[in-house]
């Protein structure tokens, strides 16, 4: 059925067969068998091959417990371009912010809207929300993962490198973005090296799951505290802020621990000459990355940020159409 719908939507664009519809997107693992198809769909949206408004009459509730620029704007614009409506809901303004159980909020919102996107502090809250809701739920970020971000990241990699045969390297804090990058690289069979100080590694369960997947896809996963080893011969070098939302009380310690993990010109010279630099933004120049690198010719951060819109539209279509 989904193939018939896709053929109508994109006419003769030749989308892959066998696309499966998903219920919710809380983790990259929820779509591990559909990543290629979603990325192809995002490509079609970016190339403006949509022939109608597939989400006309649909509504998306967007709950934010954390501030946002790219997530909020890309989902709002994405819903509008697909013909639907979005509702911005600050968690502090909902009764949930005053103690209403997640289950009650989820069940009530399910009577009003066709889907829910939530940008939350705790991953377990999003899991509970999805379990109680009767409509698809999308994670716009939690403390464990950021699946929508890494879909846009892989769309960017595909655009610049043509495939996933190269070496992807992440440098810095092994945070939620790092967790999702590890999983999506493993799912795509792409080699990934992660350089973090000791004590800042990715989530142990994420590592174990990634290594399990990598055995069947051929991905090689390296986790080390040797940043030069990780970056050597890389095709993509990626970093994120050292102090994420919620870590503000650890600013001084984190900056001291991560100072040797700045992505700068000297570090980029260890990568391949045509390597690209990526950052999910916002960035703090002079901390996790030098201005010379992030504003230099190898940086693809603006294309990467734009692709949040197209990847989000692909996810929205998959879930709500």
TrEMBL record:
<feature type="binding site">
    <location>
        <position position="176"/>
    </location>
    <ligand>
        <name>L-ornithine</name>
    </ligand>
</feature>
<dbReference type="Pfam" id="PF00185">
    <property type="entry name" value="OTCace"/>
</dbReference>
<feature type="binding site">
    <location>
        <position position="240"/>
    </location>
    <ligand>
        <name>L-ornithine</name>
    </ligand>
</feature>
<dbReference type="GO" id="GO:0019240">
    <property type="term" value="P:citrulline biosynthetic process"/>
</dbReference>
<feature type="domain" description="Aspartate/ornithine carbamoyltransferase carbamoyl-P binding">
    <location>
        <begin position="23"/>
        <end position="159"/>
    </location>
</feature>
<protein>
    <recommendedName>
        <fullName>Ornithine carbamoyltransferase</fullName>
        <ecNumber>2.1.3.3</ecNumber>
    </recommendedName>
</protein>
<feature type="binding site">
    <location>
        <position position="119"/>
    </location>
    <ligand>
        <name>carbamoyl phosphate</name>
    </ligand>
</feature>
<dbReference type="InterPro" id="IPR006132">
    <property type="entry name" value="Asp/Orn_carbamoyltranf_P-bd"/>
</dbReference>
<keyword id="KW-0963">Cytoplasm</keyword>
<dbReference type="Pfam" id="PF02729">
    <property type="entry name" value="OTCace_N"/>
</dbReference>
<feature type="binding site">
    <location>
        <position position="308"/>
    </location>
    <ligand>
        <name>carbamoyl phosphate</name>
    </ligand>
</feature>
<feature type="binding site">
    <location>
        <begin position="280"/>
        <end position="281"/>
    </location>
    <ligand>
        <name>carbamoyl phosphate</name>
    </ligand>
</feature>
<feature type="binding site">
    <location>
        <begin position="68"/>
        <end position="71"/>
    </location>
    <ligand>
        <name>carbamoyl phosphate</name>
    </ligand>
</feature>
<dbReference type="InterPro" id="IPR036901">
    <property type="entry name" value="Asp/Orn_carbamoylTrfase_sf"/>
</dbReference>
<feature type="binding site">
    <location>
        <position position="95"/>
    </location>
    <ligand>
        <name>carbamoyl phosphate</name>
    </ligand>
</feature>
<feature type="domain" description="Aspartate/ornithine carbamoyltransferase Asp/Orn-binding">
    <location>
        <begin position="167"/>
        <end position="319"/>
    </location>
</feature>
<dbReference type="GO" id="GO:0005737">
    <property type="term" value="C:cytoplasm"/>
</dbReference>
<dbReference type="InterPro" id="IPR024904">
    <property type="entry name" value="OTCase_ArgI"/>
</dbReference>
<feature type="binding site">
    <location>
        <begin position="244"/>
        <end position="245"/>
    </location>
    <ligand>
        <name>L-ornithine</name>
    </ligand>
</feature>
<dbReference type="GO" id="GO:0016597">
    <property type="term" value="F:amino acid binding"/>
</dbReference>
<keyword id="KW-0808">Transferase</keyword>
<dbReference type="GO" id="GO:0042450">
    <property type="term" value="P:L-arginine biosynthetic process via ornithine"/>
</dbReference>
<comment type="similarity">
    <text>Belongs to the aspartate/ornithine carbamoyltransferase superfamily. OTCase family.</text>
</comment>
<dbReference type="InterPro" id="IPR006130">
    <property type="entry name" value="Asp/Orn_carbamoylTrfase"/>
</dbReference>
<feature type="binding site">
    <location>
        <begin position="146"/>
        <end position="149"/>
    </location>
    <ligand>
        <name>carbamoyl phosphate</name>
    </ligand>
</feature>
<dbReference type="GO" id="GO:0004585">
    <property type="term" value="F:ornithine carbamoyltransferase activity"/>
</dbReference>
<dbReference type="InterPro" id="IPR006131">
    <property type="entry name" value="Asp_carbamoyltransf_Asp/Orn-bd"/>
</dbReference>
<dbReference type="InterPro" id="IPR002292">
    <property type="entry name" value="Orn/put_carbamltrans"/>
</dbReference>
